[in-house]
Amino acid sequence: MGMKINWGTAIVLAFIAFIGFIVTLVVQMTTNEKYDYDMVTEEYYKKELTFQDQLDKQVLTNDRKMAPNILISENGIDIQFPGNLNEKNIKGTVFLYRPSNKQLDFEVPISLSTSHLLIPKNRLLDGRWNIEINFTYNNESFLTKKEIWF
Prior knowledge:
It contains two helices and seven strands, in the order ααβββββββ. It has 150 residues and is of the alpha+beta class. The strands form two sheets. The protein has a four-stranded antiparallel β-sheet. Strands 1-2-5 form a three-stranded antiparallel β-sheet, with no helix packed on it. It holds the Pfam family FixH. Keywords: Membrane, Transmembrane, Transmembrane helix. This is Cytochrome cbb3 oxidase maturation protein CcoH.
């Protein structure tokens, strides 16, 4: 005649087995080199600072109404800086990146003779682009980010 296990004992044994499994898993994960993943970037603090810096620039851009107008035409992407600025004092870069394909990312330096900057159509594939316009004017930094479809 076999020993009968009652419900209480079965539950306790199940708990002990589960706890044993979890402990084994934790020990494996902490000691085995194969699972050595850093969840946080090494330069987490620096990254956070640059993120805060970007937010500050975007807020300043909106407050001062410095955001360039981004128009899509058959010639490409036309970036129009505010007309009241002296375009010779606008310095910076326009960064276009393609979320679906890093190979297509490119950057254009801002050097203007008029208040317009045209990104020619031949540099752009149809689809979604993220555009980041980072520029300085009178020693102040401004930033505009936008998602566009070309």
